[in-house]
Amino acid sequence: MKKLLAGGFVLLLVAMLNGGAFADSLVVGPGKKVTFDYTLTVDKAQVETSVGKEPLVYVVGAHSIIPGLEAQLNGLHMNDEKVVNVAAKDAYGEVDPKQFREYPKTALPQGMDFKKGMVLQAHAPDGSTLPVVISEVKGDKVVLNFNHPLAGKDLSFKVKILKIEDAPKV
């Protein structure tokens, strides 16, 4: 009977140790694919959320989310919730005055009523699209801001880690 109990204790101890090792592998960090829900707030106003929609998935180190957010998610575990504040410099950068350019209205899509704050889609030389914001309308000219719309803004994310798994080998 003592041998049976001793054997059971060893099995229980091994199971606990393996469980601890398994739990440690479920930490956000290098080599992990992470799924999380978020709500983004800027200037105390909710801008975007994944809650009730498709959660965000990223691979740590793949540079697919802003650096300030990724850095603060490292070390979190499954089901952890956290408010992550990201300074503008660690998000979309500061506003670059060189990214404001003036264009004649005739160079832009015709038939539009251009207004300050309106967001347009511009085509980059590589064929990708990017949002540009009308920062000023001056008679027959329009000043476009090519900075990211969230440049210069501090961001606040409420996050919940939903899933952590090994990233696929490339």
Can you offer a commentary on this structure?
- This protein is an alpha+beta fold.
- The protein is built from two helices and nine strands.
- Strand 7 and strand 8 (141-145) form a beta hairpin.
- Mean pLDDT is 87; it is low at 1-23.
Summary?
The protein has two helices and nine strands; from the N terminus they run H-E-E-E-H-E-E-E-E-E-E. With 170 residues, the protein is an alpha+beta fold.
Number of helices: 2
Q: Average pLDDT, to the nearest integer?
A: 87
Instruction: Report the radius of gyration as a whole number of Å.
Output: 24 Å
Listing every helix as H and every strand as E from the N terminus to the C terminus, the arrangement reads: HEEEHEEEEEE
**Biggest β-sheet description:** 5 strands, antiparallel
Q: Unreliable segments (pLDDT under 50, ≥5 consecutive)?
A: 1-23
Secondary structure tally: strands:
9
**Percentage of residues in helical conformation:** 10-25%
Distance between the termini: 52 Å
Q: Please state the structural category.
A: alpha+beta
Strand content: 35-45%
- Give the overall shape, derived from the CA principal axes: elongated
